[in-house]
User: What shape does this take?
Amino acid sequence: MIFVFGSNLKGIHGAGAAAFAHKYRGAVWEQGEGLQGDSYALPTCSEPGEPLDLRSIEHYISRFLNFAKEHPLLEFQVTAIGCGLAGYKPGQIAPLFFKHGTVENVWLPSRFFRAIYWIGYDQHSRDFASDS
Assistant: This one.
């Protein structure tokens, strides 16, 4: 199972899930995106403490989902990316995954499903559309 964690573009894996990935799952220092060891860095910040905007995060989510589709024999366990140091709520990040459809080898956190199915996708879509 590949551990998918929120990273920063500079690849400074110093805190949270990124630090765990660096210490235990083969994440490479100064590599801010992509497969590394048995982890995958998915950027949510430009550098530590500087969140990317939601449209940029969606771009990296799309790249990740395409990578997962191209590697169907790998399984990906996504953490609640963007919901820690980047400061977003699950209801802001989850729609960025769901709008791209289901990818069978990608496992999303329950927090994302709760945000979509308990609160409702329509509200989150409106919120996302107003993000600039």
Remarks:
- Residues 127-132 have pLDDT under 50 and may be disordered.
